[in-house]
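User: I'm writing a tutorial on reading structure tokens. Could you give me a worked example: one chain, its sequence, then its tokens, then a sentence or two explaining what the tokens reveal?
Assistant: Sure. Here is the example chain.
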Amino acid sequence: MSEAAASVRRVTSTSSKRPDRSARPAFRCTECGWTAGKWVGRCGECQAWGSVVEDTGPGGGAPRTVATNPARSPARPIDQIDVETARSRPTGVDELDRVLGGGLVPGAVVLLAGEPGVGKSTLLLDVAARAARTGRKVLYVTGEESAAQVRLRAGRIHALDPQLLLTAETDLGTVLGHIEHVDPDLLVLDSIQTIASAQVEGTAGGVSQVREVATAVIQAAKSRDLPVVLIGHVTKDGSVAGPRTLEHLVDVVCQFEGERHSRLRMLRATKNRYGPTDEVGCFDLSESGIVGLPDPSGLFISQAMHAVPGTCLTVTLEGRRPLVVEVQSLVAPSAVPNPRRTTSGVDSSRLAMVLAVLQRRLGARLADQDVYVSTIGGARVVEPGADLALALAAVSSRENVPLPRGLVAIGEVGLAGEIRTVSGVGRRLAEAARLGFTRAIVPAGALDGATPPAGLTVLTAADLGEAVTAAGLVPELAAAAQR
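And here are its predicted structure tokens:
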């Protein structure tokens, strides 16, 4: 045998003895899908005990699924597809329809997530009752409460109707059986984290269970053109609990937000295949139920009959919706070496920046003063367009001079003291004029030659000095600087 042939034989022999890495057994976590080369008692990703099992599926090679079943319907040209079946149907709740883009689409799956006690179940129970009153058959599945508890809530909010069918189930197979038997026109599932399948390992709410429940419900919705609304839990940081694939599987993802001490609730769409994602729905939650607020600006304005120093109004944008919010400031001499900066509904770092600009660029003495800033009605002001209102409210309180009644201030404050323009100035001014305000201070060039709304006098300001002058606070501020 030649030396070259012997070398090839040795290489071939060595390669044949080399172990096939793809043939090694793999282990997978049933909760989060984490994989490992050997069995461990605790998952290295989600830290769950006893959730790692051997993955018996093939690791590669040819695909397991082949074309064996005939197609239910042949492929057709796209311009011949009937779009009437995809038209949205109004729910009867205008604020919800605003966020959804007109209503519920047949076969659409909507995920409504929010913190405990924010009013998710109350809202959907009201939606289910409204749909039932129009003659549609509605199936409400509750997995968190008993049927009697839901019945009590329905009686309190006047959501009783014979067409609204209620069942308390936590087994996925039983829920699918109810869908087959009832054949509803609307399904509400409260909540997806409480439903589990006996065919899948893991506890209810786990990654594998949530994925299985979502897949089964979505399949039933698409095959029956059944609109489905799922209630979902959230984690500590406010994101939807469960696998991220849940948000990819559903058609619409909505977040229901609100402070516990406030009656105001806001609904936002973070994903919407049938409408915009920049609309916001406002609701008022009370003991008698939840109602939409087509004009929520009145909740954020105090009812004081006379002008008070330290108050200024601004117009914020929640999505595409303008809201008038009142900012209140109290500036008082401090009794401690480090003055307090306390906020409620306002970003504390944003306030600190505005106060620093006021002191450095305008000469306002605030370093030895306690500053308290709050909004009315539990509103949260996080956008830069409220900076000018924060600055004018602080100066007004510091000088103990009230701002003129009927004045709104819109603009972002820069570190150099300039007033920067913000988006949607036209919509903000139109909302201010609709509510009866007569004067507005906006950044220079914000209108770009556009005509302001009728009855509203618009004053422009390029920096904080011009804004304070337009608000009528210059004499008192100059006197304070001289002192």
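What the tokens reveal: Residues 11-23, 478-483 have pLDDT under 50 and may be disordered. The chain has three domains: 23-57, 86-294, 299-482.
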